[in-house]
Design a protein that fits this description.
The structure holds two protein chains of two kinds.
Chain A (H helix, E strand, L loop, with lengths): L7 H30 L1
Chain B lengths: L15 H31 L14 H28 L2 H33 L7 H22 L3 H28 L19 H49 L1
Helix pairs in contact in B: 1-6, 2-3, 2-5, 2-6, 3-4, 3-6, 4-5
Classes of the chains: A mainly alpha, B mainly alpha.
Chain lengths: 38, 252
């Protein structure tokens, strides 16, 4: 039986990077909103 | 443009309160989508089978493809709405195009970072200058340029007109990006869902992909609603500031 290659670290890196970009952008909008709506 | 001080505001003109409502709605949708995205992570990582030839790196597909889908949808809508703007000159269309372009750049950043992270273990290289990757990078630069152009121009009508032209250029590039895997010899995998024949993915993998596409589409809607609301608040505050400065000048 073929064993899958061991490359979990790439998967984890991609998921972390994607989450950081989405959350980072949400944070930018939150700060912008706070400045505009205060 | 501002109305004279003694003219009542138009009934259809957006108020600061309606802009705030839009921001609140945008936040509700964004937070809902981010919570659902956490669910997608769990579904992809814990409840979707491992692909035997690519291993765990194949699971990058469930965040890379939805990001690419959302980015292409965002850029296509910028182009379509820009055509409408040049015809109708409605500032809401320009505001929507600007919001969609900014959110599209965020999604394309996810696409352009997760792609190479998948490429390294599967292709043995982070990047290759093949047609799909290069055209996608051009599209990203084009819309980054679109945002830079908007930031550099201060006259609202001029900014809207010039950026609409750039937005339409971006729309023309989108079909080339999608079809590049058919038109050129490329390393990038061919589409597995958006293609003339039936999807070529096992059931559980297809389910995870479709759920992820739905969730990231919701995230696009939430972020664009939020960005649009904030742009509207910014414009209305600027208008109020200009009105009070004019009144102050008139009183002197």
């Amino acid at each position: 039986m073929q064993m899958p290659p061991q490359n979990q670290e790439y998967m984890i890196a991609a998921y972390v990077v994607a989450a950081a970009i989405y959350l980072g952008y949400a944070l930018v909008l939150w700060r912008k909103g706070r400045r505009l709506l205060r | 443009m501002t109305a004279p001080a003694d003219t009542p505001p138009l009934a259809s003109a957006p108020s600061l309160e309606s802009a705030r409502r839009l921001v609140r709605r945008g936040w509700a949708l964004t937070l809902l989508a981010l919570a659902a995205a956490a669910g997608v992570y769990l579904l992809a990582l814990a409840f979707t089978p491992l692909e035997v030839r690519q291993g765990a790196a194949q699971k990058i597909f469930y965040i890379h493809v939805p990001a690419a889908w959302a980015a292409m949808m965002a850029f296509s809508l910028v182009g379509l709405v820009s055509i409408l703007y040049l015809w109708l000159k409605d500032p809401r269309l320009d505001r929507f195009a600007a919001s969609s372009a900014e959110v599209g750049v965020v999604f394309s950043l996810v696409m352009l970072t997760t792609g190479p992270i998948w490429g390294k273990p599967i292709w043995g290289t982070w990047w290759t200058w093949d047609a799909r990757l290069t055209l996608t990078l051009f599209l990203f630069f084009l819309f980054a340029g679109y945002l830079a152009l908007r930031a550099a121009l201060h006259d609202p009508a001029e900014r809207a007109r010039f950026s609409a032209v750039v937005g339409i250029m971006g729309l023309l590039l989108v079909p080339f990006v999608h079809l590049s895997v058919y038109l050129f010899r490329t390393l990038h995998p061919q589409p597995v869902v958006l293609k003339p024949s039936a999807p070529s993915l096992p059931g559980e993998m297809l389910r995870t992909l479709l759920v992820s596409v739905a969730v990231f589409t919701l995230l696009y809607v939430g972020l664009v609603t939020l960005r649009y609301g904030l742009a509207l608040v910014e414009e209305l505050r600027e208008e109020l500031r200009r009105d009070s400065a004019e009144r102050w000048e008139g009183a002197r």
